[in-house]
Amino acid sequence: MTLLIKDCSMLDVVQGKVLDHMDIYIEGSKILRLGRNLNMVADEVWDGQDKFVVPGFINGHTHLGMSLLRNYADDMNLQTWLTEAIWPIEAKLNPKDIYWGSLLSMAEMIRSGATCFCDQYYAMDQVGDGALKIGMRGILTRGLIEDEKSQEKLEETRDLYKNYHGAGNGRLRVVPSPHAIYTCGTDYLKEVIAMAHDMDGVINIHMSETEKEVEDCVQDHGMTPIAYIDSLGMLDLHVIAAHCVHMTEEEMDLVKGKDFYPIYNPSSNLKLASGFTPVQKMKDKGITLGIGTDGDSSNNNQNILEEVHVGSIVNKAVNMDPKAMPAIDMVRMATIDGAKALGWADEIGSIEEGKKADLTIFNLKSASFTPRNNLISALCYSAQAEDVESVLIDGEVVMKDRVLTKIDYEGILSMVQDRMNQLLTR
Amino acid sequence: MTLLIKDCSMLDVVQGKVLDHMDIYIEGSKILRLGRNLNMVADEVWDGQDKFVVPGFINGHTHLGMSLLRNYADDMNLQTWLTEAIWPIEAKLNPKDIYWGSLLSMAEMIRSGATCFCDQYYAMDQVGDGALKIGMRGILTRGLIEDEKSQEKLEETRDLYKNYHGAGNGRLRVVPSPHAIYTCGTDYLKEVIAMAHDMDGVINIHMSETEKEVEDCVQDHGMTPIAYIDSLGMLDLHVIAAHCVHMTEEEMDLVKGKDFYPIYNPSSNLKLASGFTPVQKMKDKGITLGIGTDGDSSNNNQNILEEVHVGSIVNKAVNMDPKAMPAIDMVRMATIDGAKALGWADEIGSIEEGKKADLTIFNLKSASFTPRNNLISALCYSAQAEDVESVLIDGEVVMKDRVLTKIDYEGILSMVQDRMNQLLTR
User: Among A293, A318, A410, B86, which is least packed by CB within 10 angstroms?
Assistant: First the structure.
């Protein structure tokens, strides 16, 4: 199957430029040729006029199955929220809830332009099946919390790796994932680190999300959290580190030259009052960050465009500098830098010949992009989810003219509502 | 003309509750009856199942004509941005640019659920004509900056009042509007205050937006800005005070019991790095706030739902309290409190018998509202502009199933692009 998108505006995210009148030629899952007036014959030709083609967005941190708990509990103290609202109902979720909840999140992500995710939850085979169904790319990580089932959970991660790593023409990957340093003991963390070395050398963890986590770590281990994981050898791995709200300057220096990638979750960090993540400082120190939505119970949506927008403007205020975190830096966080953070930049994150055709196509005939003064600014500051017209993942059209092609969107909505109704009676 | 919306979910914003299975009976411009299973015959009946009817949102501060400058200049120092980018091109805008630019903003507002605005700009007759054309409600305020044309501008305000105040079945109002204390001298401010007394006792002004404004005021007048306007007698009027980012606690006490209403503009205040507006503190002091988008050159969109979302989560982080500025408080800011701020709560801001039928209808069959755990949370934290399905203003259907009824949306988009192309050659 070949597809030619003719005469579009295209984001070269590496150079930070919009290229006009571009043709994009896709063969199978890959971008084969880019250029102006390409003389290529394709099975299908799309008119790219009034379209803006950008690299599919990468949601670097989320909990897809939690969409059933969207708007279930808000405006509460963190501890009350977790112990009295979220955990009790979460414990009643069954695998099918997670399947449908994850599909809802994926539908929402595709409809707002995301093509890839890094998910941490449980019943991850269900998430994998959902991703294969809807056609999405992603990293599956089984969140590991130490308890009486610790070894079982490690086994689940091994099974997940065996059954889903590389599935869907390489669309899915599996990475070991200790939940956090405060939910795993030192020995358990070491076991997971060893497992990550046996797999692909990547690990995913919640890191320095709250002030309390940092204080407790200093008290328990005499070190700040990132110094602590370094002492366990975790920094020899590629670390996908969700949050890092309270990362210290010493820790920023410590990770220099290492494969340590914070994933910024602006809405969640603000909503839970975790704090203001020092994003500009991290960038100044040469750290590459990804960006994520976090789960629906702490955001409460999966629209990465909102994270890009909020992330930029909040950092301007924090730094008292309107030049802080400019549009292109934020857009990179959601594309090429996000790909680097996930260890996937060889295949995704930018529109380049030889890379995977993960493409998000915006309709420029919309208020957000009118007038067309600066499409990169528009992407960061004005664009709305509904401006996303079509989405390709791995060369496959998963949404065309806002209609999901591989699954019925309204069917997902009613299944999720049904499952929530059931859940409330359990 | 009568319309009956049957069996909908309806927001009672005063009580902070969602009422299910409600019927809304509209006659002419007004809500005549509310209740369950109303036995009324209407010219038109709409099925309200899977719909959430809320009071039309009120955008308390904007500069509608600036949409031509959307994404024109971003990520710059405030002073450079104003003097080198915005002001030079703004000076070249002509009345027709402002007409079409304002229509674009209004289209965007309606498409994201707003039914009323408070606009400060110039060539305000054009804005009035646009509002009458598209069917929107709003307050027109001619921004007054003291210069050689000061008296001419006062005359324009008088003409505007004569020609547009009460126009469109009372949809339009006109209010005098000194731009700010740093662009108007004391005598000019006094003239505008006198004019406001001669009209309806309402005034609109930018207030304490930046730290510099406060410092300069203290230096020049030996008082903080709100103490200064009080010394001029402005607090005897109903004051619509955009921003108030740097309002002091003393000033909060000073306005107690007065008709002084800050309009919070979260995205703009953050993006321009003006600072974090102390919204929770103002609320705690008993101050009623409205909320606004500000102009497109400092936001860069007119989606009030984003302001509600950002406003809530940023204040949680500022206060280090996830209970700060909960969903219902933010939704009120965009509805009933916004109406109070504009001095219009007798007619708009809530769905009540006898009030104007300014209604925003959300489609609940959307990811944002699935599952339907808490519709008020959904409105604040999840809802997207595209979930707004239909909008009524003054009983008139101005958008049905996302299609504007009184003007061609794509026509506005192409007119604005044409005018921007021309503007760049002037």
Answer: A410
